[in-house]
Amino acid sequence: MSIQVGDHLPDIDIYEYIDDGSHPEGPKVWRLPDLAHKKKILAIGIIGAFTPVCSGNHVPGYIRAYDEFIKKGIDELWCISVNDPFVMWAWSEEMRCRDKMRMLSDGSAELVSMMDVTLDLSERGMGVRSDRFAMVVDNGVITDFLREDPGQFCYTDADTLLDRL
After folding, report:
1. For residue 41, what are the CA distances in angstroms to 52, 69, 79, 87, 102?
2. Active site residues
3. Are 45 and 132 in contact (CB under 8 A)?
4. How far apart are CA 161 and CA 145, in angstroms?
5. Considering all CA atoms of the chain, what is the largest pairwise distance in Å, rounded to the nearest integer?
6. Which of 35, 102, 130, 157 is the most buried (most CB within 10 A)?
7. SS3 for 37?
């Protein structure tokens, strides 16, 4: 399935590490549609946690623009990556974004495969990853979707999405 505007989010599991500081829950499993229920979400897909463009430009742009997204009606920002939930948690700690962006794990590339937004970086030792993408989801329905050309970062940045909202 190639994801398109008007489609519902696939009914699959996605993972998020949760630790409130006193009682770590470990990886929590969410049904993706349940996580988006009655919310307007701006989700970005990244190639990988701790990678140069994702750490230096992609995610920081969204963190800086967080308040502007909220003013435009976005309830939550999500970052989705083909990394395990522990890596996504560690990266969120380094990025200092836990209060602004949910770091969601698609560790087995199930979601990005279903969406047809995979990027095969096996020759570079990284396996199957996600292409960069950005989508707006309103109550589980995709209302806007952008996908970068492989390895590019041109129009899934925060400024472009702010303009589109």
Report:
1. 25, 10, 10, 22, 10
2. 54
3. yes
4. 10
5. 42
6. 130
7. coil
What CA–CA distances, in Å, run from 137 to 47, 104, 108? Answer: 20, 15, 22
Task: Name, in order, each residue with C-beta under 8 angstroms of 116's C-beta and a sequence gap of 6 or more.
Answer: 1, 2, 3
The residue to which tokens 């770590």 are assigned: 24
Question: Per DSSP, what are the bridge partners of residue 80?
Answer: 45, 104
Query: In this structure, what are the phi and psi dihedrals at residue 157, rounded to the nearest 5 degrees?
Result: -80, 165
Structure tokens at 48: 């990988």
| Contact by Cβ (8 Å): 74, 40 | yes
pLDDT at 26: 78
Radius of gyration of the CA atoms of the chain, in A: 15
pLDDT given for residue 137 in this prediction: 98
Name the pLDDT band for 1 (thresholds 50, 70, 90): low
Strands 101-105 and 76-81: what pairing? parallel
Residue 22 CB neighbours (<10 A): 5
